[in-house]
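Hi F.,

I've been meaning to write this up properly since the lab meeting, where we talked about keeping a consistent format for the predictions we share between groups. The idea is simple: the sequence comes first, exactly as it goes in, then the structure tokens exactly as they come out, then a line or two of notes. No screenshots and no reformatting. I'm using this chain as the first example so we have something concrete to point to.
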Amino acid sequence: MKLFLPLLFCVFAHLALAAAPPSESPRPMLVGASLPLSGEQAEIGDTIRAGLTVAVKEYNATRPATAPRLQLLLRDDGGNADKLRQQLRELAEEHKVAAFLGCFGERNCLAAEQVAASYKLPLLAPIAANSAVCRSGSVAFCLHASHDQEALALARQLKTLGEKDVALFVSNSLAGYRAAIEKRYADNGLSVKTYVFADSRNDFAQQLGEVVIPQKGARMATVLLLDGEQAALASEKLRSTNPLAMIAAFSSIAPYRWLQRVQKQAAGTLVSHSLPDPDINTLPLGKQYASALNKYAEQDLPADHDQLEAYLAGRVLGELLKAGQGSRETLLSALQGGWQGNIGGFTVDFSQGKHLGAERIYLGIVGRNGLFIY
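Output, unedited:
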């Protein structure tokens, strides 16, 4: 009997453990994104989606089984700001997402920031949007530098190259940055003549046809604060009129897609950006990004600044989640409280009330082979 009782106890204990329900996995943190996955901007939307999904997959694959996972809920707005608002509200109210990731373009990202503010949740990594969206006191946090910083870097370089006169081509959606950019150029002794263009492709092409381009031999640099398609049309006209024309461009042109369109006509163009070149691994971030694409990408998309920025957004979110910021309130508090981090050698700094987290400006020039030289 003395041997039988302990044995019976062990049997019952084993049965009790076997019958106990398995421990539940931690609930994933839901994040949402509304992107132009159809329509004219579908190529851009796919690029941003790829960067976000790769970062989320990489994060989940490298975390312990007991750690909370990230889950990305994607919606297609077709580039329509009203549809974006509707879908973000649905993500916030029905799915209780903790953050919005990405958006594309100044107009749509302004709409996204307004929705995010109404639900007091952060909007991380608006792409192709700048200080009008990621402004002080907002809930939007950009992972690139300001157009003002890009303007200063380009102005100094143009001055070094001996340029004195500048034609500034600005799309209407970005005209709000005009005054600050003109001041940067004037402060560096450059005379500026500004042309503001309509946003639609047809109207832009018509206005461009009316602009008098300096002929071969004339000395005037042209600076492009346009989107990629507009910049391609402008580059083609400038080069056909004056093959030696000095062209400089802001990151708004989406350098890689612009380069694919204009190819050899891009040679000699000076381009600014606040993210490292996705094809040149100047930082560990570049190698990590390339490795993640190789392991987790669902489609074979070329490297791209916008995709890299979306990937960086996922990495930043992962770091915040590791630190225990897993809700709307804690995420927003951490970002507004001046979060700083180093992601693969790339510094993200939201201290001192900053909402544009990058400060370094990279200047590249397109070589004759169609590749960027830094």
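Notes:
Residues 49 and 348 are 21 Å apart (CA to CA).
The longest helix spans residues 42-61.

If this format works for you, I'll send the rest the same way.

G.
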